[in-house]
Amino acid sequence: MNGTLHDIKQWFIDLALVFRREMHLVVTDAGALIFFIGLPLLYPLVYTLIYNPEVVRDIPTVIVDNSRTARSRELVRNADATEAINVVGYATDMADARRRMNEKECYGIMLIPEDYSKWTGRGEQSHVTFYCEMSLLLRYRSYLQALTPLQLATGADIRTELISSLGAESMSQGATINAVPTYLGDTQQGFASFIIPGIIILILQQSMVLGITLLAGTSRDRRAANGGIDPLEIPASPSATLIGKMLTYVVIYLPMTIYVLHYVPLFFSLPHIGAAADYLLFSIPLLVASAFFGLTLQVLVKERETAFVVVVFTSAIFLFLSGLTWPRYATYFPWNILGDAIPAVWGAEGFVRINSNGATLSQQEHCFNMMWILAAIYFVTSYILLRIERRRICRGYRPSPAPLSE
User: SS3 for 146?
Assistant: First the structure.
């Protein structure tokens, strides 16, 4: 019994020593400080500034009106009245309009055909062609959102006029069905409001994994310079080593998490209607799982610089797997399986629902539990890999036996 109590006491002592040593390594390593503190502080600000302005309004647009009738002028006036389109003038022909677009005087061209009034006056279909300069997809998106209701409203007006001209009284005005879109979680339909809440979760995971793998590469550099021994490593059990390191990273990231999840959305007026207690508690398994995820990946890092190769290139892959750029239900099944193994994928999904849609922690129980499951899985994998690595080091650097005396 006394032996068991002594072992437990020694385990906690080793845990505290590992925690203190790892904290010392972090605060004395400029690279680790950049990854653990600099990236979470600056990256959310940089990304949000890049994705602003969130929406594009009053886009300069040129009209090529080959019809030159009252009906075509009415179409131009209605287009100019939308939020997205600002008619800056008329062009004599498409060549003139293209020249003005090439000179950045406009970003869209509306071509009204010569027979526009004739066909619409007879109740038949007429084609109005719109050209959009595609250097910024936000402009295309704004044009599309403006032209779709304009098309429906113009069609409804023409239909009403046609019915009246036949001597019948129109029983309805405007569109047959008045569609009023309501955008949950992103009322302004802003691009930053849509993508930043998910990206900041990826930033938390990736910056932590980068820092962990950087420290692992530094440790291997010390071993290479000291005959296979890291003089700064605490000789503790694998479990005490892993949990001590995990606690170090989680303690460092707690204030970073509060800043990223709570204050960054406030700075930029992003959607932020979830309860702070819910999304901060939700972040705890994300940090734990990300820490053990990094401790698992550190086996791939053979030197300090390798951390960039191992981790940085995965950022774009994880962004795709998270469902922010393409819905997960439409993703090929093997990619879904891979995404399920990434803590930030579940973190982004749950945080967006809590932060932007006002879900509660209990409503995101599945994502919450999945991150704890990943934390347990990656603890086991990192434990196995650490034991294998220590055995390999012991075999590789076992001192040669002394020669037999004659």
Answer: helix
pTM over the 0.90 mark: no
| Strands 108-112 and 129-132, bridge-based pairing | antiparallel
Q: Is 332 exposed, middle or buried (0-12, 13-18, 19+ CB in 10 A)?
A: exposed
What are the structure tokens assigned to 299, written together? 């086996």
Q: How many residues does the chain have?
A: 406
Distance between CA atoms of 158 and 38, rounded to whole angstroms?
Answer: 59
β-partners of residue 65 are: 112
**Cross-strand pairs, 109:** 62, 131
Determine the pLDDT at residue 399. 47
Q: What is the pLDDT of residue 168?
A: 53
Amino acid at 215: L
Task: Give per-residue pLDDT as tens, 75-118.
Answer: 899 999 988 899 999 998 999 999 999 998 999 999 998 888 87
Distance separating alpha carbons of residues 313 and 58, to the nearest angstrom: 38
Q: What 3-state class would DSSP assign to 37? A: helix
CB atoms within 10 A of CB 77: 10
Cβ 117 vs Cβ 72: under 8 Å: yes
pLDDT for 164 equals 67
Query: Which sequence spans correspond to the domains of the chain?
Result: 2-52+188-395, 59-165
Q: Which residues of 364-375 are buried (b: 16+ CB within 10 A; e: fewer)?
A: beebbebbbebb
Residue 318's SS3 state is: helix
Distance, CA of 153 to CA of 190 (rounded, Å): 24
The residue assigned the tokens 């061209």 is 109
Taking 70 as the pLDDT cut, the residues of the chain under it are 1-2, 53, 123, 162-181, 187-188, 394-406
Residue 138: the pLDDT is 79
CA angle 26, 196, 308 (to 5 degrees): 40
Let me know if 284 is exposed, middle or buried by CB neighbors in 10 A (0-12, 13-18, 19+). middle
Output the six-digit token pair for 372. 């704890």
pLDDT of residue 99: 92
What CATH class is the domain 59-165? alpha beta
Q: Tell me: the pLDDT tens digits for 172-199?
A: 455 556 666 677 777 667 777 888 888 9
pLDDT of 396: 57
* Sheet of strand 59-65: strand arrangement: 85-90, 59-65, 108-112, 129-132
Contact status, residue 90 vs residue 111, Cβ threshold 8 Å = no
